[in-house]
Specification:
3-stranded antiparallel beta sheet; 14 helices; 4-stranded antiparallel beta sheet; 44% helix; alpha+beta; elongated; 441 residues
Length: 441
């Protein structure tokens, strides 16, 4: 306000005669001005992700009474986002974000207009200016400021009130916002402009790994329409690692993706059970039956052994890079490639038949499991930690250094634990029950 970026205006806003009040955005719905979706919310469209003023809606109506809304004059405060176009364009041109995020943000910047940052409501954050009774901040204005204030609150709780500045005022801080695509405008355009418009040296977002939409059996998730997964039932039937893996493996990183029960079953059975779990079980069971349950002394590595271990290390680096670039789908695929390579190697070496190279095969295979536990931990922490303990380690994987583990080797003579089942097969009747519950809702 002191820098001249906020101005007072009298405008027409949506008013409900039935309720005798101006309606907050969350109580308004209508046609999206961008994609024409019929059930768009008061400030954004759940289908195309567009952000707009509630007055832009086509045929706006009350979500509560379904009554048609009219326009009525009221005073509000507007932030002149249009004055930040050049600054935002220059800033965002230096980012190497995902193309869909970058394009989404640039399109918004090109179309920037002044936006109201206040609403008529009895509930919310009061506007700290004179003569503003009944006016509160628009949630999309005050919400991102909460990132800063929550850090201040944390600093107070630890007894060091100024500690928050070590993060928000430090140029070396790396600020990452994990969001869905409907929040791109607020994190890539509006909040950066808000920071640019004032004088304190707050950190502006560095990375914005925004995902597209994750749909459910051909439709958008919607609790109000009964199109959702009951979480209590979800976690009763499946492990958190199964759920985490399938969502990561099908993450909507560059385009919308879909959760289907058939895909969930296939991934759990063919990948988690058939590749990952199968490799772990066959190697450790074999080590117990043929090597006394300890890491065997190995002979000179053959070319097939060296090539397999070399490729495994390459995959570890590729998985590391995928995680570093927020590519969970790719990381999941590479983890399964690592597991499958281990299965192929074990089959090619035939330790049940080739007795002379048995110890070397088991030793190399155990090192594959070491790398598999490390790389899968971010997605499947429980199964990975269990595997780590099967290998005879007592440490927590998250306390270790990635590169140190990749470049280490399992110690000869280390005692192995007997394995238990990491992943249970998902049966047809369970999937049928989930589909039935969806149709019932």
């Amino acid at each position: 306000l002191e820098n001249g970026y906020i101005e007072e205006r009298v405008t027409d806003q949506l008013y409900s005669n039935a309720d005798n009040r101006f309606l907050a955005d969350r109580y308004v719905e209508g046609g999206c001005p961008k994609c024409k979706y019929e059930y768009a919310r008061g400030d954004e469209c759940p289908k195309c992700g567009a952000s707009y003023e509630a007055t832009d809606l086509i045929n706006p109506r009350s979500k509560i009474t379904k009554a048609t809304l009219s326009l009525k004059s009221t005073k509000h405060w507007f932030l002149r986002f249009d004055l930040f176009k050049d600054q935002l364009n220059e800033w965002i041109s230096k980012k190497s974000w995902k193309p869909n995020v970058q394009l989404f943000a640039k399109n918004y910047i090109d179309d920037l207009k002044p936006r109201a940052i206040t609403r008529d409501s009895e509930w919310g954050i009061p506007v700290p200016l004179p003569n503003t009774e009944g006016k509160v901040f628009y949630v999309r204005f005050d919400a991102p400021i909460g990132y800063i204030s929550s850090t201040m609150e944390w600093a107070e709780k630890i007894g060091d009130k100024e500690r928050w500045k070590d993060y928000w005022f430090d140029k070396n801080t790396k600020l990452i916002n994990f969001i869905g695509k409907d929040n791109i405008p607020f994190h890539a355009v509006f909040f950066p402009a808000m920071i640019m418009g004032q004088n304190a040296p707050y950190k502006i977002v560095d990375e914005l790994p925004a995902n597209e939409f994750f749909n459910y059996e051909g439709k958008q998730f919607s609790k109000s329409h009964g199109w959702y997964i009951d979480l209590e039932s979800f976690f009763d039937h499946f492990s958190t690692d199964q759920i985490r893996y399938v969502i990561a493996a099908n993450a909507p990183e560059t385009q919308d993706s879909e959760f289907t029960w058939k895909d969930f079953q296939i991934r759990c059975n063919s990948e988690l059970v058939g590749k990952y779990g199968n490799l772990v079980n066959r190697i450790i069971v074999f080590a117990h039956s043929k090597c006394g349950g300890v890491v065997p002394q190995f002979d000179e590595l053959l070319l097939i052994d060296k090539n397999m271990l070399s490729r495994a290390k390459e995959l570890c680096q590729e998985i590391y890079n995928a995680f570093s670039n927020f590519q969970l789908r790719k990381a999941s695929q590479l983890i399964m490639e690592l597991a499958q390579n281990g299965n192929v190697y074990f089959d090619q070496k035939k330790p049940w038949k080739e007795k002379q190279t048995l110890n070397t095969t088991i030793y190399c295979s155990l090192n594959i499991l070491l790398m598999l536990a490390l790389t899968s931990y971010p997605i499947m922490p429980n199964a990975a930690q269990q595997l780590w303990s099967f290998l005879g380690f007592q440490s927590r994987i998250d306390s270790l250094n990635w590169n140190s583990v990749v470049n280490s080797q399992i110690s000869v003579g280390q005692k192995l634990l007997k394995p238990t089942v990491l992943f249970k097969k998902v049966e047809d009747d369970v999937i049928e029950e989930m589909v039935h519950d969806l149709k019932k809702k």
